[in-house]
Amino acid sequence: MNMKKIIILLLSLLLCASFLTANEKKIDLNNATLEQIKALPITNQQAMAIYDYRTYLGFFESIYDLTKVREINQKTMNKLKDYVIIRPYTDYSETAQRRDQIHYLLRQLSSNEGSQEGVADLWKNLLITPINVNTATFRELHNIPTVCASDVKAVLKQRRLEDFSDYRNLRNSPGLTHYGATRLNHYISYQPSTTKKLLFNYNFEFANSPFREETEEVLRESFVPDSVSSKFSMWGRYNLDNANPNISHKFRARYESKFNFELDAKLFRKLGETNSINPFAPDDDLSDLLDNNSKYSFTADLTPYDTKIILGNYRVTYGQGLVMQNSDYFNRRGTGYGFNKRVIGIFPDMSSTEEFAFNGVAVEHTNHLFDASFFYSKDKKDAVIWDSNGNDSLDTNDDIFYYILSTPRFSNKELENSEEYFNQYRPYLEEPLPRILMAPRQDYLEEKTMGGHIDVSPLLGTNIGITAYEARYNKHFNVANYDSLADYLLTDPDYYNDKLGMTDTDISSLYSTKTDSYTRDYRRVYGFDWLTTFKNLTLKGEYAELEVDGNPLKLGDDPKAIVATGYLNFENLNFLMLYRNYDLKFDNPYSRAFSEHERFYGSILEKQYYLKNPLVSQIYYNSPWSQPEEGIYIESRYRFNRHLTLTRAYLDIWQRKSDDRLSVRFQGELDYRPIYQISLRLKQKLQTNRAQDDFSRSVSKTSETTFKFRNYLTNRDRLQLEYRHMQVWMAPYTNLTDPAEPGDPNQNAPILPTGNVLNHGNYIAASYIHNFNEYSRIEGSILFWNGHGTSHWDWEDMEIDFMGSEGMKYWFSIYDRISSNLSIFFKYKIKHFKDNSLYLRQYNEPIEGNDYVAQTKHKVSSVRLEVNWNF
Amino acid sequence: MKKTLFIITVILLISSSVLTAAFVYNRQTGYEINAFSARSMALGSTGLTSAHSVMNALKNPAIISGLSGKYGIQINNTLTKNDEDRSFPIYDSFNSWIDDAVYASNSHFFNNVSTGAYWNHELTEGVKFSTTFNFAPVYDFNFKYEENVRNNQDTDNDNEPEKIAMNRYKGDGTIDSYTGSFALSLQNDNNIFSALSLGIGISYLDGNNTIDSTIIFTDWAKERMEGDPDSLHDVIYHQERKYSGTQLNFGLLATISKRLKIGASYLTQAELHKKTKTNNDTTWARENVRYPAKYGLGMVYMPRNMWRTKLYIDMKYTTWSNYSAHYDDIIEYFAGIEHDIFNSVPLRLGFRYQPTAKNDEITLTSFSAGTAFSVYKNISLDLGMEIGTMNYKHKDLFPDSNYANASLWNTQYDDLPVDRTNPDNVDDNLISTMATINWKF
Predict the structure, then answer these.
(1) B-chain residues within 8 Å CB-CB of A825?
(2) 2.40.30.40, 2.20.25.90, 2.40.160.60, 2.60.40.420: CATH of B2-440
């Protein structure tokens, strides 16, 4: 080495050293104390501003961020350059950073909580701690929202060759669609989680939304028909004008390590209920609070042993939900694919489900070859009882008519007191009415449910499972003699049966534990399910039987039900075909399989004004059970090109088992995007009921056309305009065809003698979303509708609204992430509407023989508040 | 823009009188005022930890040590629109309820003014003494109710219904608070609390309240009395009330960390001397009434956010059972969020949930919003708006006994769809706007 080189080297070292020394003197603005910042050549006010910016707005990513501080101008920044340095820094934990990345998905899951009852918590866990794709089982990956079985199979097949190291690696799995890969990516990691985490989440909800229209009708129905005083309805007696709002507190604590432990608790009071939910109130009965207004669960996930144990409230779903899916909510057209996917297995349950909640112990073992789970629950259920022992009163020895989900859930004291009060008047009416001898009772039935599921996977992507459960009861279900039951159910059974000529096979087919041929104290349901994939084709299905008087080991001799589906999945196209056939007598209260309608739709339970006890009609209005039907359903989605997409089209042809009504329904929606910012959508719905029978009195045909214009004005603003036209061709109803003049219908025959009627309605809406930044957004909508007898449904941001006849409403909501761990949602809605045409008495004074047809105006305002805090 | 807003506010201030707004519902005790500044109103009537408004000294006297500047003045004006609809139920021919028919609809405007001034003095380094004086109405008796009482017979052929009487009900007055507050604050980063302020407020309460109730029957109604028009007596009722007394307020404000401050206050029960004179009384009837004690607990949370953000949450426990055995103690909740959206212009949003003492199932729910502008150097303008609603049942303000008069109404039907002896539905809506001008020196 010559001298020149040595000098250059020494000089370079000296230069580096001087730089290093200089850097050591520089202050790192992301870590400096206030005193250090004050020591810089700036004023105290400027130093304070820098400190405040870092504390309350964000860390600096570069020196140029200094100009974002209002007190620092370009000149000051240039001066500071020599004294400060910015090193990347954050004081957020790994979890908080993760939450920042996926906050929009967390918000979407919260807003979908209604349709995906109870499973959002599971998906939120997965978002925060993604599952390791290199060790995950088929079921774990298949439980991720909207991911289909053929995508999961493609991933697992590729994994046999090599572990995935990143998304690009995953994306190259042969057979994995782009959509499947992007959906998976949010919920998976490529390495095992090594950090221990302790996570807490608190969620508060408040909503003073009004009761649903049909619920209000039921609650206002008078038990003493000759009286017009509201005190003879449950509404008036319990002053539901001032109904308590819906409130819930949900707390979740989760410790993640080698084993995962989760402790969940929920304290709630639903709309209109009067129980106190203050656990510290001195006069309140804590046991009542724990029994009726709380849920809790403890989960131990022993990951190394592939075993999960849950104590407390849990949720169970298997197969197509035909044997077991313990939810209080009906999911229309729950195909089990896409957004309607069922999450299979056992999970802690902090959802709003009360009646069909399980409370006990559940164990699940999952591995790559088989899954096995077992559950046991002991819980009290609400039921409608009737005076089966004929002692002219309702007592604890009476049999059960059926389960009921009540809104609000009146206590037994409230129910018994009100019945006693109404009964005082009924025998003394002009047309005397007998005592009320059929009524709901809270926690009347003690149900011990035991069941399990075994699932074997002989091939990758193929599962065959068996499910069975037995529910043991301390009371009898008894609808064996429907004719005599009608006397308890109906105000005027003769009128109903003879004049209206209606029968309710839906009711008379319900399961009894006491019949002429047997007496037992249980209900048993068993079945098997399958899932298999061939390339991009998935076949899924489930068969189930309710044990009545057949041989348990023989198929087909008991009431049965079947769902079979086939699903083809391409990059730009998917195609689904589903067949279902449920026997009328397949009365499984835990079945939530695919159907078009709830059970009891079209039965007498829909008509509270014919019932001796209107509250019984809530068996239908809150029905979570699938209607017995047979039908075939076809659905598709096709992306023609980047501009044109058939977003969803389906055709369903089905026959209702209770009265053989045949119906056809079609819906299709086309989305045209000439440029990315603009979307034009055209949607068409068509439905025909009983079209096969020209001589039927109840043929109806519905058509609904919707046009949507959606414009992304900026990358933060979205404007949407929507117009909808609807037509219903149907048999005439006299209250729709009566003229609006007073007169005696018997003498002057004012009813218009129409052959059929055509109702047509319009709907126009505008909505706007503005995202202030990633943390805050505001959304608002205003809409007008005129139904002329038809009704519309409007999907708001977190709920769906029913709109009859005519009116307008507006609402706005604010979503605000206060910090990375605290978010608030607030919504305010005002709705002005007119009710359907109804017969009215003349204002303030009944005039014999004269009825008016008029419309009445309503105004409803409501507030919804939700707070979500992670710490 | 700023000039226009300033001019509007000045006009509002100049046009203000001492009238304020209240609900008929609160006519006995007065409507308790919760927001004393536009900022507080916009933030859901919070204020236990908010050191931005001198008026919040009425909520927590300890906050005044956090006011910036040496001294300052604040003037507030509130303009309130109160809409009240009273209705009864109507039924269809199946005797099912259809809707509530509104029979009396009232809409009235009110406004009020409050003001305060403060002075800060640093005694030694880290020790500050502050004092304020505030004037503000704290209980509000103002309301107005007018009802056209009509007969509805023979009206089905396009005839307008005959008027039977005019029923008017009106309340005036407020209980005003004249409050002096003192606070001492200590700063020491080594303590559990990096800053701690303690405050005390001494209030003299003084109030006037008049209630007028009149029912004037029309000539048509009197003629219907079958030759005995004098049997219908007009009702003219007038009552005056005067209140006076004192009240103490103790407060604490502690800075827990750079993200969290907590505040607490205790307002003592006020035993007010009440004088009442009814109609032509010549002497005052005297009694003592106890206005409730209040316990407040609040916090402000200041997270790191893209916008500078403050979240305020207050809770208040009010012992209304002191006032009357028929009243319940209540817990009220207040929450507000403030974001600095650009150039220190804030966006404020708030929510208030307030049960009533007469029946804690009847609640006032309101939400609010607001902003602020710097008008001129040390002068700033805060604007706030609140929309609230309260629904409850209440007996008719036209006495039920009048409905039994067979000459005025056809009473032959026993099952009148409207049972006027039942309580009616009352739908109260409140829209308040508030402007605050701050001068700081």
Answers:
(1) none
(2) 2.40.160.60
